[in-house]
Amino acid sequence: MQSTAERAELWVGAAILAVAAGFLFWSTSGGGVRQSLASGNYELRASFPNVDGIEIGTDVRVAGVKVGRVSAVDLNPETYLADARLRIPTSIQLPSDSAALIQSDGLLGGAYIELQPGGAPDNLNAGDEIEDVQGAVSLLGLMMKFVDAQSDEDDTP
């Protein structure tokens, strides 16, 4: 026969597992934002020279507001560029001359894709490619260029 303390431990353990399962479901569903083809999303493509920090599930933002997610990142064996597929809602129609930039979310290495709408009269359709792209910028590379430029100035008479 189980004692009252053993039953209480069993119920507390079950509650902890249920809460953990709820958090796992919440985190894998995009924080409560479900994005599927049935809910009115479409996919755009963008080919970047460098996608450092970008992976499946990375945020896609317009004016700093999260509007979608990266659904896939693959290396194109013909161009050696990283092809990213971006899933955004159909309620957001981007002009055909829009740009996609990889932005740093801070000094700790987080990144997201920022979409900058253009001014063209026609819009991008599902499956279209965003031509104007800017890959990830390496902060270490920028610092090394700055240090190198400073050392060149010190060497000049």
Automatic annotation (TrEMBL):
<dbReference type="InterPro" id="IPR052336">
    <property type="entry name" value="MlaD_Phospholipid_Transporter"/>
</dbReference>
<feature type="domain" description="Mce/MlaD">
    <location>
        <begin position="41"/>
        <end position="118"/>
    </location>
</feature>
<dbReference type="InterPro" id="IPR003399">
    <property type="entry name" value="Mce/MlaD"/>
</dbReference>
<dbReference type="Pfam" id="PF02470">
    <property type="entry name" value="MlaD"/>
</dbReference>
<protein>
    <submittedName>
        <fullName>Outer membrane lipid asymmetry maintenance protein MlaD</fullName>
    </submittedName>
</protein>
<dbReference type="InterPro" id="IPR030970">
    <property type="entry name" value="ABC_MlaD"/>
</dbReference>
